[in-house]
Amino acid sequence: MSRQARPRWTDRLRSSVRAKLLVLVLAPLVVGVPVLLGLVWTWGYEAYERLLNFKISSDLVTAHEYFDRVRSGVGYDVQALAESHRLVARLGATPAALSSLLAELAPGRRLDFLLLLDREGRPLAASQPLAGVAIPRLDWPVVAAALHGSALTTVERFSADALQYVSPALRERAWLPLVETRAAAPDARTAEDRGLVIHAAAPVHDEKGNLVGVLEGGVLLNGNLEMVDRINAIVYRDGSLPLGSRGTATLFLDDTRIATNVRLFGDTRALGTRVSQAVRERVLGRGETWLGAAFVVNDDYVSGYEPIADGRGERVGMLYVGFLEEPFRDAGRMAMGALFVLFVLISAAGAALSLRWARSVFRPIERMNAVIQRVEQGEADARVGEVASRDELGRLAGEFDHLLDTLSAKREELQRWAEELDRKVAERTVELSEANETLRRAQQQLVMSEKLAAIGELTAGVAHEINNPVAVIQGNLDVLRDLLGPAAEPVRQEIRLIHEQTDRIRQIVTKLLQFARPGEFAGYAEAVDVNEVVADCLFLTQHGFDRRALEVATDFAASARIEINRSELQQVLINLIVNAVQAMPDGGRLNLTTADWSEDGASVGAVIRVRDTGHGIAPEDLSHIFDPFFTTKKGSGTGLGLSISYTIVERYGGRITVDSRPGEGTEFALWLRREPRYDESPSAPGFLRRW
């Protein structure tokens, strides 16, 4: 190109819209389309690889879940047999009778063997006659765990001698000639005689609950074609793979296929073939999961391998799923080719239409675009203004300005509405919250009133009908003891027990009366030092600490004096401390703290916290712990302690809160007001007699 031609071309490019459009249309075709095609190919291939990896990862998860379910099922079956009445009832039978029972039970649970061991791990009976050299059973993790009282299921690698000992038939099933496999790690062996076993054991207790032995059982995975075919059917259902592809599943013992539906040729399964050395080093050597293409026996498969670990954490095998890769690649290439052709055709058609219909359109559009950018930056009064064009674009520019004016007005109006709506929503939210709280308190009060009314009627009759006979029993016990004198010594313990139980009946009736008619038990209110009351309660309950390894920590920081009946406050605190100690049967830490309670800078009263490090309260029980007769102490307790404590504290205008997490402990907090809020009418349930 000459020096004179070059300026004419650049001048034309700057002054001619047609030249600009030509450059704009041809540049994407000449430069952009090849680049885009390359990017689409690269991204498409990467997306294709990610899609295949995602699918094989999902397939491997499905296979893993099924294998885990099978493994858990073996454990459940062994545990169910260990707890079965038939086995427990015949624990005292002869070894031959026990072996006969195990031989009958094992096939029903599809177990390949069952062994009944004593507490030293010695076999007492077996579902099949034991043969060969005895293998120490205590070396197996599942047996050791069962002897400590816990059922356990693992996958274990059994040696040929271990298989021979539990069943010679299992050793024959496990034997498999090794097939020379391309790319596999060198191995001098010619056959695989070990077995991969789902191994389970559960403790066996007699009818009195004493541990008397262990039930051990298992399922041999070598040659278990039913399992791999089931995994394959679950993972690769009909229609889940493209035409021509097929899915496979395999169980490996180390790197040897012991159960697979991969075909070596024809209908012959590739049993005894081995995985490639690269896969072995990554999965068995480093314990990683293999996701991606791999050569399997005689073809390329999209493969997923994951290690299988035994009870000691050692990698003893692999779980594999995969499918033929070539049909996927063919489908991917066909889809990409069609996409490229379609992309080129659409680009060419678009460029032709743009060249044909594009005229002086950029200037008004650029101005409108500039206005849009200014509006996005916050310049709400930006407008296109007058344009030289009088065609559709000119009218569009005018309508665009009109639209911006309308939007600006609507925006201001919406802003006003939004502010008004926010204000009304806030007001309604506050009102609704207050109404809900009022309704909740009213509902709680109504429920409590109904319970108190019912319990009051019941308790009045109970107190009359029970206390009189109890008094007669106690009086006659005293007379009996006095009349018999030294002759009562042989039954002294029985007399004492009768006296204690009648006293317990009296205490239960008293608690019922106190809960149903709290006003009759209300004491005189006085200004008390909460630190002093907590210290007294700790001293009164200290006798229960001796039998437990408890650590007690106190922090008395409250300075406010609380107007309350001292005895009733002691009753509440002693109940909470005793509950905390009972929650720590194996020892722990008991924290007792006091602090001032302030709201909005003003002193309200004091707060007392009782915290333990026990087993905690289950979340589903937290909402019921203050309900009458609700208790988590099965076989002991009346379920009234916390209900009475809640009633006492609430009567003085305070409240009780609880914070508990299972396994971490529980904290109860008493919020007591300096001047309690109560109803001073003599008929009110919470009427307090002042000094």
From TrEMBL:
Its EC number is 2.7.13.3. Residues 404-452 form a coiled coil. PROSITE patterns: HAMP, HIS_KIN. It is a multi-pass membrane protein. Residues 461-676 form the Histidine kinase domain. It comes from the Bacteria. The keyword Cell inner membrane does not apply. It is an enzyme of class 2 (transferase). It is found in: Cell membrane. SMART domains: HAMP, HATPase_c, HisKA. Its main location: membrane. Keywords: Cell membrane, Coiled coil, Kinase, Membrane, Phosphoprotein, Transferase, Transmembrane, Transmembrane helix. The keyword Membrane applies. It catalyses: ATP + protein L-histidine = ADP + protein N-phospho-L-histidine. Residues 359-412 form the HAMP domain. Pfam families: HAMP, HATPase_c, HisKA, sCache_3_3. This is histidine kinase.
